[in-house]
Amino acid sequence: MALLDSMPRVRRSFGPKGLATALFLAVIVSGIFPANADESWPEKPLHVVVPWGGGSLADLVPRIIFNRVSRRIGQSVVIENRPGAGGTIGAAIVAQSNPDGYLLLVNSNAEVNAPLFYSRLSYDPARDLVPIALLATYPDALVVASSTHIATVEQFVRVAKARKDGLTFAAFGAGSAAYMGAERFRLAAKYDAVQVPFKGAPAAIREVMEGRVDFCFCGVGTSLPFIRDGKLTALAVSTPARSPLLPNVPTTVEAGFPDSDYTPWIGLFAPARTPPEIIQRLHDAVVATLGEPDVREKLAAIGTEPAVMSTAEFEALANRDLALSKRLVEALALKPR
């Protein structure tokens, strides 16, 4: 039974005795739940869970942003990596935590996709987590090892269709942005491939460069150093527009594959029932930070674009993304495991 449910009911029409009782209860409740509880937040450091390995864009972006957010809220922000199971391990930790604004989640599109791929989640993303702010969007690059001598998307698709046993692609679990981008393109191009899951981009890229995995859709920012070194070849980018970091690389749609684009995003979430005042303060601190020129420059340098939205707009974006993912899952006849 909830604490307030166990207290005596106070009638709506107060007489002298009723008024005295109401005042007495008000004093008790105010002692338990101080009126300025949210105003005093934050009184200690915040912890942000990233459910992916270090070095991925979902890890780098919050480190750039929360270094400045910490100054705005007057407390340090600790980033904690909790990778595994397509981001659901770290997400579950936050979803089941105390909604006091001290434990938060930074996740990708995988946050809304999880129920489509995992039937035994210990949490409900739609019920147990609430969106705070969109942090950034970015293009994934379709990359292969340069040693393959594949130079164009058309050549890649011809090779893929010729492989009787299909190709392998690196991603970060079913429902991750890298997985969804690869599957959406595969469906449009009509070839076979299976995922080899990794906990983060560095390991995935290494396996592609070594030729042990055929390709991956990885963030432009994380794959760019290896593209410039000649170890990877970028064939296309997943977003509707080209990447400023790879201006000569076409989009998958430009390469001749309609309905193949996919836009990864990174956003901030809190446990449900987090006080709305805290949600708003976090949102405002993030938006103000995204407006700082040097922060925007740092995000651009890793191939991401800061994205300013209201909390409601971010929620609408997530819902649209979920609808797109549902159509993809149905087209591929995938079942949650």
List keywords for this structure.
globular; alpha/beta; 6-stranded mixed sheet; D-Maltodextrin-Binding Protein, domain 2; 5-stranded mixed sheet; 337 residues; disordered N terminus; 12 helices
Give your account of this protein's structure.
- With 337 residues, this protein is an alpha/beta fold.
- It folds into two domains: 46-138 and 264-332, Bordetella uptake gene, domain 1 (D-Maltodextrin-Binding Protein, domain 2, 3-Layer(aba) Sandwich); 140-237, D-Maltodextrin-Binding Protein, domain 2, CATH 3.40.190.
- Helix content is 42%, strand content 18%.
- It has helices at 16-32, 57-73, 88-95, 110-117, 125-128, 153-162, 177-189, 201-209, 220-228, 276-290, 293-301, 311-332, and strands at 46-50, 77-81, 103-108, 129-137, 140-145, 167-171, 193-197, 215-219, 232-237, 265-271, 305-306.
- The strands form two sheets. It has a six-stranded mixed sheet, with helices on both faces.
- Helix 2 links the parallel strand 1 (46-50) and strand 2 (77-81).
- Helix 7 (177-189) crosses helix 12.
- The longest helix has 22 residues, at 311-332.
- The two termini are 36 Å apart.
- 42% of the residues are buried.
